[in-house]
Specification:
387 residues, 15 helices, two-stranded parallel ribbon, four-stranded mixed beta sheet, 55% helix, alpha/beta, 2-enoyl-CoA Hydratase, Chain A, domain 1
Length: 387
């Protein structure tokens, strides 16, 4: 019914009772296996799996519940509820990492048991080095157990429902921006085919689309003008949608104290501040500001060896959306600094003057990430550096 095997520091609890339906006897067998795990000395981890390829656990044993006299092997029905809930609480508080290798259907009590295992989010490529041979659920679960026990392993902070809801606005807005860019390129290409060239920028396309919808049509065949009208209408609709999403994000940023602190930084607007708050959650998950910058992929790739330090381009790992927002914000700030160097601090003016433009904006984004971490962790206001 329940088999417990140990391979090194990893215990594997295998449910081997067909569909693994739960009754009092099944609960007590699992509890006995947990007794053995808790009695072990040294580091350990537990993997729970099923020998049935189709079912992890099909929930409560309904035959035993409906006709207990016909199934005496199921045990005392009156104590099942209390013992089952006690077992679930025990799995939650088990003093070893627990991994659930769900290889089939999990219903009712089986699904509840799966939820009681540890919840850790980590990139799959961090687990891959610990996979030995083959591809099975048990081998993957064993590799996860090995990975989560590493003292230097990095985990992903679990987002709250409010964070996920706010990020859904950002994703929808980002999709609309990309669709608007595609539509602008379609409009430009159609006009170019008939010898009409639009100036650079979204504003030029917006102005043309409004004129076209007002009846100011270029010298083109009627069919082409008709298609162009549909494209201009879609472009204007996307503009309005983006403006609406931006307004929603701005309202959230104004009502969030951490976002208001971030917006006092040069180059950080409500969209960037809101995205950072919704993505990272608690800044204390990062030990230093450099860890946060590395999480955004803004630190140089280290290829040092033999005592020689070699730093390459930025890693571009981590959250691409926030990295893009920071670099775009710093690009805008760098353009302003080139026009008016007296309006920026000495460090910013010097790096823009001495370094290539894109290298300077990336360095500014790196420094901004470290400042953001300090503001969020220490709950301090932004202080303008000396000029």
């Amino acid at each position: 019914m329940i088999k417990l095997e140990r391979n090194g520091d990893v215990f594997t609890l295998t449910m081997d009772a067909g569909e693994n339906r739960w009754n009092t006897t099944f609960v007590r067998k699992v509890a006995e296996a947990l007794d053995e795990v808790e009695a072990s000395t040294g580091p350990a981890a537990l993997v729970t799996r099923s020998s049935n390829e189709k079912f992890f656990s099909n929930g409560l044993d309904l035959d035993w519940v409906q006709t207990p006299d016909a199934h005496p092997e199921g045990g005392d029905r009156t104590v099942f509820g209390g013992e089952f809930m006690a077992l679930m609480g025990r799995i939650i508080t088990l003093p070893v990492p627990t991994v659930c290798a769900i290889n089939g259907h999990a219903f009712g009590a089986g699904f509840m048991m799966a939820l009681c295992h540890d919840v850790r989010l980590m990139p799959a490529n961090y687990v891959k080095p610990y996979v030995k041979r083959g591809k099975t659920d048990a081998a993957d679960a064993e590799a996860i157990c090995e990975a989560v026990r590493r003292p230097t392993m990095r985990f992903v902070e679990i987002k709250t429902e409010d964070q996920q809801a706010l990020l859904s606005i950002h994703r929808t807005r980002d999709l609309a921006v990309r669709q608007r860019t595609q539509m602008a390129n379609v409009i430009r290409s159609l006009l170019r085919e008939f010898g009409h060239i639009l100036p650079i920028g979204v504003e030029a396309v917006t102005a043309f689309a409004k004129r076209h919808l007002d009846g100011d049509h270029p010298d083109m065949p009627d069919i082409a003008n008709g298609m162009l009208g549909i494209q201009c209408y879609q472009f204007i609709c996307l503009n309005e949608r983006i403006a609406g999403y931006s307004k929603m994000i701005e309202q959230h940023a104004l009502f969030n104290s951490d976002a208001r602190r971030l917006m006092r930084m040069p180059g950080i607007g409500p969209i960037t501040a809101s995205a950072i708050i919704a993505t990272i959650g608690n800044a204390k998950q990062f030990r230093t500001g450099r860890d946060f910058a590395a999480w955004l992929g803004l630190t140089p790739l280290n290829k040092s060896s033999g005592g020689k330090e070699r730093l390459g381009k930025i890693t571009k790992k981590g959250d691409r959306y926030i990295r893009k927002l920071l670099v775009v914000g710093m690009t805008s700030r760098a353009v302003m600094a080139k026009r008016s160097p007296e309006k920026v601090d000495l460090w910013t003016a010097k790096i823009i003057a001495d370094k290539p433009f894109r290298l300077a904006t990336t360095a500014m984004a790196n420094k901004s990430a470290r400042i953001i971490w300090a503001i969020l962790k220490k709950k301090q206001e932004y202080r303008q550096p000396a000029f």
